[in-house]
Fold this sequence. Notes:
TIM Barrel, alpha/beta, single chain, binds fe (iii) ion, 2 domains, globular, binds N-(iminomethyl)-L-glutamic acid, 8-stranded parallel β-sheet, Urease, subunit C, domain 1
Amino acid sequence: MNESRAWIEADLIVSGAGELLxxxxxKAASGARSTLGVIPEGAVAxxxxxxxxxxxTSDLREEVRLARGGQVVDADGRVVMPGLVECHAHxxxxxxxxxxFQLRVAGTSYQEVAEAGGGIxxxxxxxxxxxxxxxxxxxxxxxxYFLRFGVTTVEAKSGYGLSQEQELRLLEVYxxxxxxxxxxxxxxxxxxxxxxxxxxxxxxxxxxxxxxxxIPAAAKHHLAKFCDAFCEKGAFTVDQxxxxxxxxxxxxxxxxxxxxxxTYTGGTEMAAALGAVSVDHLDHISEAGIAAxxxxxxxxxxxxxxxxxxxxxxxxxxxxAPARRLLEAGARVALSTDLNPGSSPTSNLWLMATMGxxxxxxxxxxxxxxxxxxxxxxxxxxxxxxxxxxxKKADILIxxxxxHVEIPYRYGMNPVWRVYKEGRLVVKRDLLGEV
Length: 435
Ligand code: NIG
Ligand code: FE
């Protein structure tokens, strides 16, 4: 190497990947089908928590120099890829709904359970009764689970408090637990989850409390990045959700929406018109909704379609989201667990990738992008995480698998071998678990 040429300095090098998946951004608007940016025999170098170099292991020695005290890790033919991004999770709650699951198995629908006083409201009662300490411990444990599955960024919704004091308390739990945990926590105010029992006869009064009190307070204390609402029969109407999301936007909270999950409501079209960052669920989306999510030229933000096949699977009422039609229309599609006690009590985002293939007919490339770069876009974080590109966070996974097609294939398993969060080793496993 020429003496005058500048070396790139690294304090972490992962080399010898069978396949390195960059998951780099592609121009969605061009209509070009996305690829994973597979680099055979790839390597990645990081310095002070950021990616500084990505390429072939054979080129590494020519360009990258290891800093004093730095570390080289041999991936030994394994897949190396970005940390996963979980873009839709209900993290802070107490209690469980395993009895309700058995009622549903015996034939009572999710909405019938809710109408009978169970469902989301039963988790609200349990959550309100739990101490801060208990909620913090439960949230920490759920983040630990995610991290072991290779998830390095997690969105976290409130929504089981449903009063100003309780909703802000949940957001404070996220702030406190997130500050001390390796996983990045991205908080969302979901005060419009359901109408709390106290307001059942006057839902608009509750909406007013959200728009006039909770949103300004959450924004003032920088407790939330996003504002979300559940647009559904038995939850909030399109018009009520619009008011909530508009008030959120006025206070700098970016809009998201639970839309068209159990029935068609038109929520997707409304959220797209507001420039929402994502619309989530979409099992019953309309043709107009699909068209509203199609990639568009120009500055207008088109929401990412976040699909939650685990919720559809666990409710067992059928009707998976039309992923193929969304992709063919040019929509950006992300996948998420929807972790919550009612419709999807799992942290296994890899399993969602398998369901993406077997139930939604997405390809291995599409599902892997859907849990990395597209999920990052659903959190407006695609400049920071979701791909291995120079300048981004060095959130790096080394998997047991050697080829990316194996990822959705071996289902219900945890393929993680090592997790690095901003260049630091945070999970070390072997086939039998932690080592
Ligand atoms: O995303 N749809 C609304 N919220 C959750 C379910 C919450 C619950 O049942 O506790 C969801 O599926
Ligand atoms: Fe949800």
